[in-house]
Amino acid sequence: MSLAAPVHESLEEEDLPKVSGYVSARERGFRTAASRWRSAGARLDRFAGAVFILPAVLVILAFSIFPLLASLYVSLARLSFSEGGVELKFVGFDNYAKLLVGIDHVHFLGLAGPLTPVSVAVLLAGAALIAFWLYRYSRDQARSVGGFAGRIVVALGAGTLLWLVVTTVMSSGRPGTLVVTVVYVGVDVTVQYLLGLGLALLVVQHLPGRRFFRVVFLLPMMITPVGVAYLFRMLTDTSKGPLYPLWVRFGLTDVSWVTNPWGARLAVMIGDVWQWTPFIFIVLLAAIETLPHELVEAAVVDGANRWQVFWRITFPLILPASSTVVLIRLIEGFKIVDLPNVLTNGGPGTATESLTLHAYTIWRALDIGGSAAVAYMLLIVVTFVGVSYVNLFRRRVTAMA
Amino acid sequence: MRRYLANAAVLVLGAVAIAACSSGGTNTSSNQKFSGTTVRVVTFTGPQIAEPLQRRAPDFEKLTGAKVQVITVPFSDLYQKILTDFATKTNSYDAMVFDPQWMGDYVPPGYLEDLTGRVQSDSSLQWNDIAPFFRDFSATFKGKVYTIPLDGDFQMVYYRTDLLQKDGLKPPETWDDYISIAQHYQGKDLNGDGRADYGSCWAMKRSAQSYWMWLSVAASFLQSQGTKQGAFFNTNDMQPLTNNAAAAAALNIYKTLSKLGPPDQLNNDVGDSRGLFVGGRCALSLDWGDIGTLAIDTTQSKVIDKVGAVILPGSKKVLDRSTGQLTDCNPTLCPYAVNGVNHAPFAAFGGWSGAINKASSAKVKDAAFAFLSYMSAPAQSNVDVTIGKTGFNPYRTSQFSNLDVWTKAGMSSQAANNYLGAIKDSLQSPNMVLDLRIPQTAYYQQTSLDTALAQFLAGELGTQATMAQITSQWNKKTDEIGRQSQLDLYKASLSVTK
Question: How would you classify the pairing of strands B317-320 and B38-44?
């Protein structure tokens, strides 16, 4: 640990002459120097930790914290070009107000439709679930004030998101970029997880050609997202493209995926699922392959069937890996931009526009402040979802394991 | 000693020989004025526009020694890429071939080199041969020249002459005519391949170039009193002309036409609609001059000598700004009407033009000017405007008057007369609509208008909601920048020489 330790040892050897009672001027000089070294060494020792960590801190400050703070300021400002430079005019929360209550709020939050019996039922069910979850925590032995406050925040956030999704998607409203992104993330991560898990379970079986499939299943992940987007653009073109004979066969040449809002969103989601299922597949495959055989064998000897082996042994043991891979995909999923941008430029209308594409569209007209405000809203949502997920689910799963 | 002398003599001779060679080299490079200079030109991802620049760059290098590096970015990114490069003083582009509408953002901060003196003194450029409208709108800002036009842009309607002749139909005079012709041909086989084809093919994709198509429809409803009246804002108070009966009529026509085309028309850009038209799959289309030249491209056209062009259709009703209502044309309201139809040809975009970064070094600026001048000079330009894939359309007087340019390129004289006639009709119209050229034009059109139109076509917004959204966003932006300064610049932009 100590840089100064060897210096101490060497100095102690040099201290021997003082036993004879004679201390020369030269030795006094040495002694002063030694004590200086000692104190310098002790100081260095005290700061060694900070010194070692400083480069990393500086790098993080320069490349993460500074841009984050700078973009926070930009999100509170309006940029204009003047002779010889750029002017940033502070406008307070104007850019955020535009998104939440101003001229861009429908684009960002969506348009709420009138409530239907089904949407009311879903809202009530959601509210009841959240209330039950809070009630259960209040009866928990390990409850704490902090934990309860955190859960109230999560309940409020989840309730707001649920209300936005139900009133804009399930009623005859129109989802904004926030809700579209949440739908992408929810559907994509769920389907990717189920497919990835299924494929991983298949590949660990002793099936012929499993090595080949192991490689093939990974290919979509290797392709650049823009390439995948162009691929799906060709595949969804019903008037030409590689699937044209198929569309003719089924009489679908006059049907367009990309002019129907949900058709276009579905195309985006299929593309994303196709590309990112392999990521979940490879992580879960690794987790399953490292499971101890003894447990499975013991269960089989005890007469457990395949489902019981999976549900009681395999699934709980791969939960930590599952929770990690889902967290990574949740965070990545919120940043989706390539597919909707290349497939339809966010169209038809704003149907496929994600939050990142929303920020990009505004940024293209050099409304940097407005764009930074959208990016900050995305950061808030991702942080909220990520922190909630880690605190409420992942930590518990890891502790269980 | 003798050996040393001999060696010394060899060295001296060698040195003389090297000196002679290098002086010969100097003579060669003195012919090449810009030897060793590299000009970085940014423009939009080709093939159009970038193609002629890339094709002619090696020829220019042979002539002058200057190496031209063409950098391409997608159209929707071009505006901010250039502006960000200027603003951050990165200066990674020496010249830029862009939309002259953006001069409102590029000129006031002092990013562009003033070319006024250069264009007048460059005889090879033949500045006065460039049609006055393009010299003014595309090249001049507040009385000074900042760009060299390389392209001339008007939107026109293209039609299949063979089909209309066969069915005894006349080219559309009004937008109602256009719709009825499109309805007539929708779903019929127009190229004999046994597949159902389309009445009309337009580019309606979001974040592309579709908003100009809607403006082409709206123009004849919005402007009837001549060019200075303007079609975007009220010239008294800078209130947008986007929430009235004229805008509603144009939206409804736009929506109708979105259903009289290919099923994925909402996702088609100009490249798609042009490809469909020259592939013989559409009876009508709306485009700049490009379809005219693509139609004679033997490598892709199935409609050679079957294409006619006509000035943008007009309207018999126009916006009466005093009442805010659509009113039947009369001599007072529509002084330039022909047969009671108010035409308002739209100079959409203006035409790709080349400018020079003021911050580049003097030698690079000279080389950049020489390159842009070379590209615009009649020897090159008169060929490039006849090639469809260049994306360059005629903009020089000689290109309109000299039919040989077009017949040599493979157009019949009748087709050439028809094509040039449609452009000339547009160019000479006293009621020509000028495109917007004020600060933040990119926001007004590319972001706000484009998004609202895409939402309207997708059914996300109704007619009233679309108009209200565009109007409130435009007003907000105008107030942010300064209403009076925007009004002054808008009024100044309407005073062009034609």
Answer: unpaired
